[in-house]
Design a protein that fits this description.
This protein is an alpha+beta fold. The protein has four domains: 42-169, Alpha-Beta Complex (Topoisomerase II, domain 5), CATH 3.90.199; 253-331, Gyrase A, domain 2, CATH 3.30.1360.40; 367-485, Orthogonal Bundle (Topoisomerase, domain 3); 508-819, Neuraminidase (6 Propeller). 30% of the residues lie in helices and 25% in strands. The chain has 19 helices and 42 strands. Strands 20, 21, 39, 40 and 42 form a five-stranded mixed beta sheet that branches. The N and C termini lie far apart (107 Å). 40% of the residues are buried.
Length: 820
């Protein structure tokens, strides 16, 4: 059988090598992986660039397309880069060029682009034949002094040219602009930072080599993204800086605006880094259409060249906090996984913040050393030439005669070297000198230049001879760069208040909280109780047991922190939503499951902690007429078991509490209808364990019923409500100021019809009152229903209290026009 295939020869057989296929695949894959790691995907720790970035910038420098030149077509830059240094396809080079020009991708763009270079909406850039580019000014700092033998060069892909293996990098670009890439079996994701902060941290490493991550974080607050937004929490930042790995929560910047008087909208002005804005808006719209997010009436993107503006309009009556937290949970917050992986001596390493800066400083130390050696050689060569010129000027006539008498230039150079001991370089320079260089003025300039060159030589020798001098140069140049290119931080660091929880999804609403003498407690939406005219019976608000009675009823907001003062002088803190919500006919839940109350201990007053935002005082009054003021800051840290608010005598109870500012008047009312008004400054501030001072003289078995804080210009009225459901309003201006611890003035007539005073409140006509009886009847009415009369009157019917029942509590709901 014939065949065209030649028989193998002994030479062919000798060229065949037998290997195991798994060994060959393993070695080939390792070679491929290392090629990808070192040649494509990972940045170098020294200049923070991958090869493609480095080659583009170097090619632009070689082309002269610097920040001071005109823009050049991107296709020209791509072509030069691909033809000379990076033969991996024009699209890969152009994509890199585009990213280096995008202000939303690079914290400090390295390319100054002209034309359409894409957008945050994911729009692609125009084709490279339409766009133009040139180097940004800060990019030139990466290439500065590259011509002074500061870095090693290597052959390009076809051995025609030389290209740098790394750039001199006058600033730590790896941290300043960050980097991301996926190699084989590993990836990197380094966030950008503020240039000024990184420079300060680098200087700290130089000055204090033993510094810690905590020391560096005094300068570097955290990543600084080009798109701004907020990083939530500092613990994750510390972890990323200490270990090289971490997970940062990045949250959009937004604010709630009011429009159309009673409507609100959420306006997003900054997005997390690398968020596609158009896709974000689309996903929110999908969730609204699918019913995952409720309360949104309109969604639109109003962004322009001045910045991001995504508007989320809410429906009338929608709960803004709930919508905001739903947007945060699903759309406005994302995680940035930090992997600080870079090439160190050609090998991939995960680096801490300090290690990254140390590697940069080591690189920069080498650059400055090589630059100084180069400059020193140049300076010494120049000094040598100047020395020869000065010697020639000293013997100018002999030099001229010698040159004139020589046959040619070579002969002149030889005779000069023999006659004056010139070097070859000096003789060559003197022969080429022009006659104009022989003037006395020229001689003076040469002497001045020679002195300057000698000074420069001394400076360079100091740098090369002293590590401290060399590091000082690095510091000085870094601080100069900070001065020129530094800017304000864009990304804020906000405290970590936890992720969105069940609490965040609880609507904020006004509620009525009811407590009973047997320590049952519940809350009900205030909106359940419509306003009625005075004199009604109200509706059932609580189904109390036969031997139990309502102790208090007060208004609160579900998200408020409340200070709950009890008749035993203790104070507790809780959130209103922690009180279980129940229907009107429910008894409530035992308060011992919520607060650590003692037997017989009842809540007598509530203070919203929002009122304690400055130099306020908590002013308290007891049943026996004692009054005291304590600084609000003493109530900041309250144990779950409560703390002492006031020390009480046996048989005394805490009755009422007001928040005051040190300049107000206090009005104390008693059960038998007396009132006294005095300046609160008559009660000196005292600690929590103090009993207080006498506020009013009580006669017989009289006792304090309540406390009101007012001032001279207060146009409100004092509402007085009695046990049997009667009430009256009298302008506060009718209660003259007296000295503390007097008998006071008659406020209301208390008799069998009225019964004793239950509560006093300061009200306006528009305020609503929530009145609750001991048997659980509740009524809401407008304060204006009660006519304004003088002191020492009996009042009118407020609530039709049945036989055996009595008014237990009264609370004021301000600004009720919206609630109604």
């Amino acid at each position: 059988m014939s065949s065209d295939v030649p028989e193998p020869t002994d030479v062919d057989a000798a060229r065949v090598e037998h290997v195991r296929i798994e060994d060959e695949m393993e070695q080939s894959y390792i070679d491929y992986a290392m090629s990808v790691i070192a040649g494509r995907a990972l940045p170098d720790v020294r200049d923070g660039l991958k090869p493609v970035h480095r080659r583009i910038l170097y090619a632009m420098g070689e082309m002269g397309v610097t920040s001071g030149s005109s823009h050049r077509k991107s296709s020209s830059i791509v072509g030069e880069t691909m033809g000379d240094y990076h033969p991996h396809g024009d699209q890969a080079i152009y994509d890199t060029l585009v990213r280096m020009a995008q202000e939303f991708s690079m914290r400090y763009p390295l390319v100054d682009g002209q034309g359409n270079f894409g957008s945050m909406d994911g729009d692609p850039p125009a084709a490279m034949r339409y766009t133009e580019a040139r180097m940004a000014a800060i990019a030139e700092e990466l290439l500065e002094d590259i011509e002074k033998d500061t870095v090693d060069f290597q052959s390009n892909y076809d051995d025609r040219l030389q290209e740098p293996g790394v750039l001199p990098a006058a600033f730590p670009n790896l941290l300043v602009n960050g980097s991301s890439g996926i190699a084989v079996g590993m990836s990197t994701n380094i966030p950008p930072h503020n240039l000024g902060e990184i420079v300060d941290a680098t200087v700290e490493v130089i000055e204090n080599p033993d510094c810690t991550v905590e020391d560096l974080m005094e300068h570097v607050k955290g990543p600084d993204f080009p798109t701004g937004a907020n990083i939530v929490g500092r613990d994750a930042i510390y972890s990323a800086y200490a270990t090289g790995r971490g997970r940062l929560r990045v949250r959009a910047e937004f604010e709630v605006e009011e429009y159309d008087n009673d409507r609100e909208r959420i306006v997003v002005t900054e997005l997390p880094y690398q968020t596609n804005k158009a896709r974000l808006v689309e996903r929110i719209a999908d969730d609204v259409n699918e019913g995952k997010i409720e309360g949104i009436s309109d969604l639109r993107d109003e962004s322009d060249r001045d910045g991001v503006r995504v508007v989320v309009e809410l429906k009338r009556g929608a709960n803004t906090e709930v919508v905001k937290n739903q947007l945060l949970e699903h759309h406005l917050e994302r995680t940035f996984g930090v992997i600080n992986l870079a090439l160190v001596d050609g090998q991939p390493r995960v680096l801490s913040l300090k290690e990254t800066l140390e590697e940069y400083v080591a690189h920069r130390r080498e650059v400055i050393r090589r630059r100084s050696e180069y400059d020193l050689a140049e300076a010494e060569d120049r000094a040598h030439i100047l020395d020869g010129r000065l010697k020639a000027l000293e013997n100018v006539e002999d030099v001229v005669d010698l040159i004139r008498d020589s046959e040619d230039r070579d002969a002149a150079k030889t005779r000069l070297r023999e006659a004056f001991d010139f070097s070859e370089a000096q003789a060559n320079h003197i022969v080429r000198m022009q006659l104009g260089s022989l003037t006395s003025m020229e001689a003076a300039e040469i002497e001045s230049e020679y002195e300057d060159v000698q000074a420069e030589i001394e400076r360079l020798e100091r740098i090369l001879g002293s590590e401290e001098e060399l590091l000082g140069v690095i510091k000085e140049e870094l601080l100069d760069l900070k001065e020129e290119y530094g800017d304000e931080r864009r990304t804020s660091i906000v405290e970590d208040e936890g992720t969105v929880t069940h609490e965040d999804l609880i609507p904020e609403e006004d509620v009525v909280v009811v407590t009973t003498e047997d320590d049952y407690v519940k809350r009900m939406p205030l909106a359940q109780f419509e306003a009625q005219g005075r004199g009604g019976k109200g509706i059932i608000g609580a189904d109390v047991k036969e031997d139990d009675r309502v102790a208090t009823a007060f208004r609160a907001n579900t998200h408020d922190y409340l200070l709950c003062f009890t008749n035993h002088g203790q104070v507790y803190r809780l959130k209103a939503y922690e009180i279980p919500e129940m229907g009107r006919t429910a008894r409530g839940k035992s308060a011992v499951n919520i607060l650590d109350l003692d037997p017989g201990e009842d809540i007598t007053a509530i203070v919203d902690t929002d009122a304690l935002d400055g130099d306020e005082y908590v002013t308290m009054v007891t049943r026996n007429g004692y009054v005291k003021r304590t600084a609000g800051e003493e109530f900041e840290n309250i144990l779950s078991t409560g703390i002492i608010a006031a020390s009480l005598e046996d048989g005394d109870e805490l009755v009422d509490v007001e928040v005051t500012d040190g300049t107000r008047d206090l009005v104390i009312a008693t059960e038998q209808g007396m009132t006294i008004r005095f300046d609160e400054s008559e009660v000196r501030p005292m600690g929590r364990n103090a009993r207080g001072v006498n506020g009013i003289k009580l006669e017989g078995d009289d006792a304090v019923a309540g406390l009101v804080a007012t001032d001279e210009g207060d146009d409100r009225a004092l509402l007085t409500v009695t046990h049997n459901g009667y009430a009256k309003r009298t302008l506060l201006s009718e209660y003259r100021t007296q000295s503390r611890y007097g008998k006071g003035l008659i406020d209301i007539k208390t008799n069998e019809r009225n019964g004793p005073v239950t509560a006093v409140k300061a009200v306006t006509e528009d305020d609503h009152l929530v009145v609750m009886s001991e048997r659980g009847q509740i009524m809401r009415t407008r304060a204006g229903e009660i006519s304004t009369v003088g002191r020492n009157t009996m009042g009118v019917t407020l609530m039709d209290v049945e036989s055996g029942d009595a008014v237990a509590s009264v609370d004021v709901v301000p600004d009720t026009s919206d609630d109604a």
